[in-house]
Structure formats: structure tokens, C-alpha cells
Amino acid sequence: MDGTEKKHYVTATAIIVKEGKFLIAQRSEKEKAFPNRWTVPGGKLEANDYVQRTPDAGKIWYNVLEDVVRREVKEEVNLEIKEMRYVTSLTFIRPDGLPGLIISFMADYAGGEVVLDPCLTQHAWVTFEEAKSYDLIDGILDELRLADQYLRTGKMAEWKKGTE
After folding, report:
1. The pTM is what?
2. Cα(29)–Cα(4) distance, rounded to whole angstroms?
């Protein structure tokens, strides 16, 4: 084995909650992956997200994904977030054949006005029911369902196949 089967793109996303609604945004038609589809803010983990800062304990860094989410939310929609909670994770094979891992968080809105990065064309604050009418990237509705259930019950459920 040469190790290539162990390499993944790692992405972290945030379902941002404000007054019981979720922020979704439409990707530009120029985006290679999922053009014109609706999603939540997020982005890829890069080595520079941690190697340029002092390790937190020995030779390790904590809260790297949380920092990625904060950075990407600020870059993509200009918002501050707080109180991140884990929602779920998923994997897929990218069009270039490389595997991708996405870790989905839920976070509370902490401040700012939405200003979209050029990779996004419009946004909406929606309830789970309203989100059903948007052309969401595969899996986003499932993640919004989990977030909505958390808002209603205070408990984060694990994703299960075949649920609405």
C-alpha cells in the first residue's frame, strides 16, 4: 500500500441557526461541484489551518475543525457563530476519484449581516419545511432534519436511512 487510499479531502460545514431558522445559500453557476444548488457554508481543512499556530498540547492541535468552520462561515457569508454542536459525518467519492469526508456542525448565529462570497449567489433563512422547496445538495435536507429535531427536542439524533 502506498498510502493514497488513506488520503481524504476533509470539509467542515455549519448549519447556522437564527431565531429557529437555518441559513442556506445557492452556489454560483461557475462552481465545479454542485453549481446552482443550495447548501450550507463550509470548506476544506488545510494544513495551514493549524501548522502555523503553536500546538495546544505537545505536538497536537485542538478544535481545528471548529476553527475551519468559523473561518469558512466568515469568508462565505460574513457571520459570526457560537456554540457549535456535532450533527453528523458523511463520505463520498469526488468526481476526480478522491474520497471526501464532510463533518457537519450546527451553530448558533452570534452576529453580523449576511454578505455573500462570490462563490454564492443568494441566501435564505428557512425552516426545515421551507427548505424542502429548494434544490439542495444531496444530504443537506437530512442534516437540516437532524438540526430541526435537535431544536424541537434538545437531543441530537444519529442519521438513519429512510427517515424524512
Report:
1. 0.91
2. 31
